[in-house]
Specification:
The complex is a heterodimer of chains A (387) and B (264). Chain A is α+β, with helices and mostly antiparallel strands. Chain A is built from twelve helices and 17 strands. Chain B has a nine-stranded mixed sheet with strand order 2-1-3-4-11-10-9-6-7. The chains are: A alpha+beta (387), B alpha/beta (264).
């Protein structure tokens, strides 16, 4: 009778999460970061996925407005895809993802909240509405009968709760795949890293106002919007230097929401000609991707990057993976209107689009720390999966 | 003047029928999607139309071979009405899977080419979705003018035009039945990926001897609006899609040749 009246008895399981003892590595500064940038561009999670993207029909029914690949020769990495499902309506649907399993090695909470922030800013980059976002969670975890594994799942779920409530973005569906663990004959246990993929979607009011990430025109101004912090834990810069670190990126949901709203407004007002989110590989990777997607160059310096006081050192500013940041290309004539839209937000001019065919980034003292042909950066990004 | 009417064939697995219908409507035709089984039940249905389009997709899951089953349905149940349709001076267009169907029915290239031309696996051995440059080659194709260059997407795994031998290729050329060839971005001979499948001499579309039956691997119905271009966001002048021409020319041809009072 208890079963009939009170339903299925609930499981009670033990979940434990102990913060791992990690520290920040000491990595020596370099005079030039060309090689490190190319190594990061070639890493699996950043490198071009064109090989697989071209093997599925990503324009079936003729509805795609922003395709997964974009730019002057259709091979740059779009932040999000946009489809126009109804022929007679200018409205569209934007779809994006956010995921970074490396942060999970430090704290699954930060991995999850970073995934949510990344998926949302990817939507914002193409011109989607901030107030109509829906999320999906896709969990891949090890054996959750183990208290440690379940504990990390709880940490991630708490971040999903905070993200959904904080951003006003409900989880409308999801998928989980648990018990991804294998025991070999000799007793070795192989468990996948706890991994959360966040998918996000939102409405686009007018698909013709959508923006892509490829640089459009030399002479245009480049801005960074959002604060760069000392957050390289789990970063790709640490990865290529053999480190994990401790400072995985956090999210200030209130500030991130305000940044997203302002960005969304700037794009709706037609003030933005290209926009790209800063994520894996940080500022340096985002700039490189925008340059080679547009077949153009960049002249930038790090003086204008808004950052926290503890984010010192060229390598930190170049490769920090702080959330809630955007790189924006604005025509000189729209400088004032864009600046007005961003009033009282952390944002700064970092340079201009050039026709030099090179990406040149100077440190805060004016010394070039990245100085590489755009084509070479693109080659590094494409070679990994060029099968 | 009467109304130009187009029929868009449907069958299990066809998934490009809606946008094909939309493209035809935009170009002034009254278009309807009709399942092949309705047509087999009522063969006189074809009499009401002047344009037949076999759209893209994976008809019957591409079982046996791409387009084979739908082609067999047409050969075994619709041969007579289809022959009459073409003999009446009407237009047939096959897009992607529809092109594969028309080749497997023998409608393309037609005549003495039966079983001498086919579409087979891409050289790359995989499905390819990418945009290609095309040059219209034929002087008698009613769907597009000779020498016109257009930009369209392909999305297929079996799009390589293969001929039995060199004589067949020469005959196709001398009969002016090559509708399109792939070219590179400056209009020259196309190597992979400009030629996405390894088609002999970059052949991407064929017509029959009348110039009124055409099949092509690229998807004109997927480039009707400016925002379907893969990098429209960086183009200052947003022209309407290149694919429109093919549908607009078909509609115009019917108006001029089949619907004017002096016509039939």
């Amino acid at each position: 009778m208890e079963f009939l009246h009170d339903g299925i008895p609930k499981f009670s399981r033990k979940a434990v999460w102990n913060k791992p003892k990690l520290s920040e590595p000491a990595i020596e500064a370099c005079d030039n970061y060309n090689e490190q940038l190319k190594a990061i561009l070639s890493s699996y999670n950043i490198a071009s996925k064109e090989w697989v993207i071209r093997q599925y029909d990503h324009e079936v029914q003729g509805s795609s407005v922003i395709k997964p690949l974009t730019g002057v020769v259709n091979d740059g990495p779009s932040d999000a895809a946009v489809i126009q499902p109804k022929f007679e309506s200018q409205q569209g649907v934007a779809i994006a993802c956010g995921m970074n399993p490396r942060y999970g090695d430090i704290d699954p909470y930060r991995m999850a909240i970073s995934g949510i922030d990344e998926a949302i800013r990817n939507l914002i980059c193409v011109g989607a509405r901030f107030d109509r976002i829906a999320l999906l969670d896709n969990f891949c975890w090890g054996n959750c009968d183990k208290p440690q594994t379940l504990g990390s799942l709880v940490r991630a779920a708490e971040a999903c709760r905070d993200g959904a409530l904080g951003f006003g973005a409900p989880f409308i569906s999801g998928k989980d795949s648990l018990h991804n663990e294998f025991e070999a004959e000799d007793g070795t246990v192989i468990s996948i890293p706890p991994t959360l993929l966040i998918s996000a979607m939102s409405l686009v009011d007018d698909v013709e106002k959508c923006v892509t990430m490829d640089l459009k025109q030399s002479g245009n101004i480049l801005f960074v919007v959002g604060l760069t912090k000392n957050e390289l834990g789990g970063s790709h810069y640490y990865k290529i230097n053999g480190a994990v670190g401790a400072n995985a990126p956090e999210v200030d949901i209130e500030k991130s929401s305000e940044t997203a709203r302002r960005m969304s407004q700037a794009i709706a007002d037609g003030l933005v000609v290209s926009c790209h989110d800063c994520s894996e590989g940080g500022l340096a990777v985002a700039l490189a991707e925008m340059a080679f997607a547009g077949g153009l160059g960049i002249e930038a310096d790090l003086k204008g990057v808004p950052r926290t006081d503890d984010c010192t050192g060229t390598n930190r500013i170049l490769f920090s993976e702080s959330n809630s940041r955007y790189i924006v290309e604005v025509e000189p004539g729209n400088f004032d209107r864009f600046a007005k839209t961003m009033l009282n937000m952390p944002f700064g001019q970092i340079g201009v689009v050039s026709s030099s065919g090179k990406v040149v980034v100077k440190d805060t003292d004016g010394k070039a720390v990245i100085d590489e042909q755009t084509d070479e950066l693109k080659k590094a990004w494409q070679k990994t999966f060029n099968w | 003047m009467g109304q130009v009417r187009a029929i868009v064939l449907r069958a299990a697995g066809i998934n490009c029928d809606m946008e094909t219908e939309y493209a035809l409507r935009l170009c002034g035709a009254e278009a309807r999607r009709v399942h092949v089984n309705r047509l087999i039940e009522n063969k006189s249905l074809l009499d009401e139309y002047q344009i037949l389009v076999v759209p893209g997709g994976f008809s019957y899951g591409d079982d046996v071979a791409a387009g084979r089953i739908l082609a067999n349905q047409m050969v075994h149940h619709l041969a007579e009405p289809l022959r009459k349709f073409v003999d009446d001076g009407k237009l047939v267009l096959g897009i992607c899977n529809g092109f594969q169907v028309l080749v497997k029915t023998g409608l393309l290239p037609g005549g003495e080419f039966q079983n001498k031309v086919t579409l087979t696996d891409n050289d790359s051995g995989k499905f390819e979705d990418r945009w290609v440059h095309l040059e219209a080659m034929s002087g008698k194709c009613v769907f597009i003018g000779q020498g016109e260059k257009i930009y369209l997407p392909v999305a297929h795994a079996e799009g390589k035009v293969q001929v039995a031998d060199n004589d067949v290729l020469e005959q196709l050329k001398s009969a002016d039945q090559i509708a399109f060839r792939y070219v590179d971005s400056s209009g020259g001979q196309a190597e992979y990926p400009y030629n996405p499948n390894g088609s002999v001499e970059g052949i991407s579309g064929l017509i029959d001897s009348t110039g009124r039956v055409m099949g092509l691997m690229p998807h004109p119905e997927r480039y009707i609006r400016p925002t379907q271009h893969p990098h429209w966001s960086r183009l200052s002048k947003r022209s309407e899609g290149d694919g429109r021409k093919i549908f607009a020319n078909a509609v115009e041809y019917v108006r001029k040749n089949l619907l004017t009072p002096s016509g039939k």
